[in-house]
């Protein structure tokens, strides 16, 4: 039977690179992994239908159903593949390959491999009848995404020589000696079969064979090797289990010179001989009076009883002594006069023979407490000299925030009742201990708009006396033979169930976070490569862990192409799994492993616990979740078929921000999705053909009709599928809530809201107020206009585009929210839950649409309202946005309107500054170069500061030189604006009104020579510039730049906002702006805000809706200014203009500067000012 290979071909498409290599992935259901074995051949046999009779050897003539045969030639690099295997119906027979003389061993049933930790051992024979015992086990593939099960074939037992000289080995009584060289590691041997058990014997070149030992468990024993001269040598033998795929690994090391047991003869005249009970006469060890000798059990698994032969020169007797009992024991025969005392001293057991005297008990006590020999005496001395040190850190609450490179907060780790202890110096300074206790642990998902805000938490709260996590690790400070010893590793997790809720975007965010860590930049402490050390765990105890894992997919937020062909499958069934995972308790003794193999071992253990819980996986399938996911995927597919960008964008935002908490939410949002699909489908029948025809003519009309027909079908279908999907989601959410209530489970909430990170990317100290404001921004929803009606909600409208900066709570449950791109006014429906329930966006003003910000007083002593003037508007729309602020007086704080205005102006100016910078990429070095231009940036004509034609001087009050005259007259001007109107619609009527008041008006700006300034623009009737105008010498402390510009000013105090919107004056300088529906070119007229001690005589005009440059016009010192009157003739008037009426007057002055008022001069309290005619006394 041939083996089947599954090939999957993937084609990657790229517009820039059309020719791409194809990726071929080969998957096999099973593969064999063979290591440290001689060449082997395998037979897989069918055991179905009959019970196999197992003989020692099987011939090819027997009627065996061979399903598959694997020869040595098919094994490449220790690996080969196999087709699908059913372990319950298969048998395996193995042979050691020898040039066609294969001799297969007995068939072994493979059904144990179907269990989680299943394994079996079998024998592989060669042509001479020798065999090797093999160990067969299964494990998952090391590549997690590859669905392949690995069948591991290893020697049952391997040997490693750490002695430094050759060792001779026999594996049973009939085996031939084999040499384990000094450099051999993980060696296996072929040996002869015997009817008895396999027992290990070893010897060195100058010793006899050790006592046969049968290896059946993990242990550390000492083998006694007798030399020819009667002395003994101890060989420390470590028997490790389940390492590197083998059942046992035997490591030989040099034993301690002190021996595991020390025998002391403390008598004055008696000769003592000892041996392990049951051995022959050659095993006696002689002890002369007042002498000592080392001792070890020749049979490590035999009786722990010694025979003591006492020779007192008169008689000789044998005394049997139990070494397992510590303490004092006297001889039964009183004439011997001996006492036997067993003492535990660290790792050494001391046996003492003493004579029965009056002081013997005191001597034994003193010897027990003090010790007087070798390493134990040194250990006691270390205990007396070393001082134990213990460092304890206790913390009530600990929070750790994980922020990526953008920056954006990804997760938040919250700990309560943290206890950390590190102690060293006890146990004679030989051991250190680390202890960690966590009273409470929770990990939050801090990504915005996540459906699962809590990543990891216990299902039920724990009390003060039962922490959720407790860990104790002890470590030996001195490594024996290069092995790091951990006497005790204890990990205890609460018996409560843990909930692991994974929303797909957090996976990709953490992957991106890891990829951008750039760990290679971390400096290394040393350039020396460390050898992978061996670790010995005397006892490891890890409690069981119970988890409930939930996965929520988000296909719209998944990186493109990251999952390949698995992406649509995961989108369809991703929400179907709410798995209950039970990780079993782990408890092992005397385990050896390499340090590098710890993490893979833990991962394999968890993986085995997962794949061997099929019932949990089956019963964890969420049918409602799978149905909802499948319908949502189909709905998305139909929506994409419509090719309607507006529909797709709105639907995508709704998918991102949906929060289904019950059946009600599901039905409401589903109905909204259905109505949205039907409305877009029906309206597209009219709008799409018209749009296409306007762009591409008749061909576009045909194309638009096709799109309209397709949208008329697929958009309602998409809405219907969304309706069913969301309704099913709501049913599932309600069922989950009911189960939580019945089981008395707590609802998971974040410990705190995500950290607010502003546009500058600076990490600041956490502020709860800012975090709440950021959540308000994330949840804020707008109403989507369908025609003239607000029909659909647009959730989280600015969550992905804007950064939070500040927010203010104002009267009537409203919120002013300032971001880096706009200012918003929100209506808060639930003030106590504004960080959990969305607020409605009443309006928003992007910074590029903001022309000016004003403070206004409505019958109050302090500013109570904020007025935002818009750049673009129509006659049917409001030209301002009004914010009503709180007027409550707070000690030491500015009024709320002032604070809001300050924040808005700061962000507005920062946005304007950012818009004047370009990021240029230099391809050669990939560095960023910033380019900035002038404040004017071409939006309006700059006024030259030097006259083009020199003018005659018409007035002078000084006989000084031309350069020092205070007043000069210029005849050079630049035109700023003309009042020409649109020749259509209602603008024609406006032209008629203007014609009655004097026709066309133009505004001009004088061009000043070097060192001279002007105090305001000039208005003229008609299209011709003025003949001459005065400009002034810029003398220090007589002229100053304005501190800003204002949009409104008048004598009346504002009483209501209806009058403001109608155009009545407030309490600031009077300025006018036109409406683009009426005039061919835009204009805004501003009044400079003079600094203290100065006045602003005239106004300044800008040929757009921007605030003028700060250095464009100058204010005049009060000392050289005087009050004057307007000229008798009005320059221009537009009483019916929108948004305000405009009346332009010329001040009676040589500068000819204009003043624009919203009222006629008789109704205004404006006082015209000019520079005095003779400022010479002030100059002197």
From TrEMBL:
InterPro entries attached to this UniProt entry: VPS13, VPS13-like_C, VPS13_VAB
Which segments constitute the Vacuolar protein sorting-associated protein 13 VPS13 adaptor binding domain?
135-302
A Pfam family (short name) is VPS13_C
Which residue range or ranges hold the Intermembrane lipid transfer protein VPS13-like C-terminal domain? 751-861
Write down what this protein is called.
Answer: Vacuolar protein sorting-associated protein 13 VPS13 adaptor binding domain-containing protein
Species of origin reads Xanthoceras sorbifolium
Q: What is the lineage of its organism?
A: Eukaryota, Viridiplantae, Streptophyta, Embryophyta, Tracheophyta
